[in-house]
Amino acid sequence: MLVAVWRGMAHQQAMPLKLVRPLSVVPAAAFFTNSGNPASAHDCHSAFRYLLQTRSFLVAASLYSLAIHRRSTLDWLFISRANSLRRSRHRALGSKVYLWSKRGTHISSVETAAIVFHSKMRAQSYASVANSYKEVATVELPKNFDFSAEERIYKWWELQGYFKPDVNNDKEPFVISMPPPNVTGALHMGHAMFITIEDIMARHWRMRGRPTLWIPGTDHAGIATQLVVEKMLASKGIKRKELTRGEFEAKVWEWKEMYGGTITNQLRRMGASCDWSREHFTLDKQLSRAVVEAFVQLHEKGLIYRGNYMVNWSTALQTAVSDLEVDHCEEPGKLYYFKYPIAGSFGEEYLPIATTRPETLLGDTAIAVHPEDERYEKYVGRRAVVPLSGGREIPIIADEYVDREFGTGALKITPGHDPNDYKISKRIGLPVINILNKDGSLNENAGAYSGLDRFVARNKLWADLEEAGLAIKTEPHTLRIPRSQRGGEVVEPLVSQQWFVSMEPLAKKALKVLEDGELEIIPERFKKVYAYWLSNIEDWCISRQLWWGHRIPVWYSKTAECGKKYIVARSEEEAYAEAMSVYGADVELEQESDVLDTWFSSGLWPFSTLGWPDCFVEDFQRFYPTTVLETGHDILFFWVARMIMMGIEFTGRLPFSTVYLHGLVRDSQGRKMSKTLGNVVDPINSINEYGTDALRFTLATGTTPGQDVNLSIERLSSNKAFTNKLWNAGKFVLQNLPPASETAFWTRLALQKFDTQEALDQLPLSERWVVTKLHILIDAVTVNYEKLEFGEGGRAIYEFFWSDFADWYIEASKTRLYKNEEIASVACAQSVLVYVFDKVLKLLHPYMPFVTEELWQALPHEGDALIAAQWPKSSLPKDLHALQQFADMQALTRAIRNARAEYTVEPSRRISAFITATPATSTNILKEKAVLVALARLDPHNIRFGPSMPAEDADKAIHLVVAEGLEAYLPLVDMIDVEKEVHRLSKQALKLQSEYETSMKRLSSSDFMKRAPVQVVQAIRDKANEAEEKLNAVKKRLTLVEKMAVQCSK
């Protein structure tokens, strides 16, 4: 029938049909060809529409499955068709086939048929339809999890709306704002870290039933974006200054539209389950309105002012930059020592001064010494002459700031070009002299050096000091050079007219919420850091001399008689209205050319993205304040603290009650990743090679809050192996279930629960043990999630799955599943396998979303998607006695395995055992005899139990003391060929004896001991000790075997 349908359709479409595999195996594995070439997407779309119109649902599913599998004809039309089906009465085709479609050659056509017929004929029993195909209706998983499936799964989640909060759910929402990455950015490990942790939070609480909103977005990144576009224009021979501001902004927007989505697409690759329908950009209309409103309100409260203050000045970017945009690099340099003549001494007296920047002496306004420094006590109160200045004099002062141990102990004070000197000048009222132009050249205050570049001036000035006899010496010195993060040039401390926010009033409120316990910071040690910074806060320079960004909403009159007054307004229209009321209708205005610091708009992020300043919009009412803020500890001051201050100031509420700080991602040696070191690990490359799940699990479990994580390829490889282990366990479970067409049985498996003590008590020991361990795990991991202990939680799941479930229970279950005529025993094992594995997938899903979703969909389950499945319940019944009973059997198994390994027993060889134990322990082990036989490789016909082994037999056996009241005897004759073992051990003893004697002979040679390096002598001594230790062990074992050989011969 299927062949006929295919051929009939091919005839009507005028396309020949090519089958790539026999229909009995993979009837869906076909593709259309047109003159021998693969069909176009249009052809396949036409075929797909035709099949739906003619109600050929089975073949439509097959074609759709094929298209996804081949990926040659996939586009969104197929997806929309599948989803239109899902919304119709053929829901099964739309939801099931979409997930299964990628398997192409693995999904059975009859399984698809059963799904479709179930949708079409609701009155007919699904089981009766499935039974007619049960010979071949099985769902198979491929050999390994295909990483390329991750994008398909992600698109399906997004299309189904799983990332959006359920607006009809009246539970308390869980809301988290994504730290907006720069729109210029490409995914790096810092992004990968915060996406992993935040997605874990979002997926967990979504499964816990809370309406979950994770708000994504990007930052306009003023400096970075302007630099990128300037470089792009320069490559075309265009300079920014050749364009008007409007023309340049248009170029930036063009660039943003073309390349700005790169980072968000990469965040999707990481599995970020954020609500993309609420995505924001810090320069979009809503957020720009919020920025203007915030500026106006702060200005109206007297918290924004224009003034002169010291800033970090980038001479290349021609703008002030924040502390975060400055890297302090240790570089080799010089310490210059020179003479500072004492005024009135006619050159006979001087103070020796040491500096790293001699050119700045032209801006000196004082010399400071420590008040307790006896060397310079007599000079305090006198004056000194600034060298090469034409005779300008400055005071010599005493100040405790001076470090007597650095340099000469006398410090030149240059308030215009050193932040610490600037603070001293503000404290004691020293004048400030600026000797630098904005481009890094010296200005007219530098006298004869005016117009020279700062570094050229340094060399010339030092040469002039030498010529004048004022130079003393230079010596090598390691400098901490402030360099621009963007351009790499040396940043200059410079006093400049800028716009500032008065921070002290805002900081007091932000401190109070911490002191009152309203704000929780994890880890707790950062509370002190937060409090210290707020207690010593300085005013915030919020202006930047750029063209890209939020232009400061300030207008100046072009008319000279209006003076230097300015107008702050929400719009140009509002500014003109106010100006005309003061200066008349003929007034002309021009807007401030500076833009706001990017961190200003980012500081509004938690509430501007939810609609503020419109506080009555639905999102703001429902989702503000947010729940938690997660980010790196390195921006606690620059972003987190400012959001808290802004949130309290503008909304009257904390923007979030919990701050979770993760560490930095470093290389395997703990070094910061950098292109210079060549140790950068690219997340996308890691995803392609190891899979997203492995990368996420590595990042999440490799650290604790606030601690840096060392990322190694070995850990990535290990967690890729974990993904494979999980996949193979899923295949094992699936392969040991009846066909999916037996829907009644699959439904029972999906609904099977061991959530009562009665249900648990009815299970055999192995099953009671693993279910109890699972229930304990659920309790512990749920608490880990709630306490944000993601590393601990992930490691606990890993340990349970790998050790308890995979290594022990799966192996134990094989004794029920294989060659077992007891149907109830088989069904019990199947139920427990599905029950435990289902819960493991749910616990693990927030860490490893892709592989868990794929496995969950293939197995019996309740619900449409794992991402929206119900979280496992806590406080489920447990049998603590079962834990001890199974632990006894585990200990016995390990002891026997160790003995087998020690005596090199072939893995396939079955051995006998005599077990002595208490009656209760013997009973428990007897009930699980098949498990013990399988795990310890025992001969099932030669296992005996008793209070003690006969003495004559005990002498011929290996005695194992397992635990109190539990011992085992393993007859040696079953384990080894005694004569061969004696021969082997004797030969090994001779070899070790020879190695030991050779080493000792060298060590006893006085000539060798005199000439050999210490490390060589130690290596030989270690070799001798090792040989001696091994020799003693072999001799001991040889004695035992020889003794047993005598016993066996009697």
From TrEMBL:
Highest taxon listed in the record's lineage: Eukaryota
Protein name, entry field: Uncharacterized protein
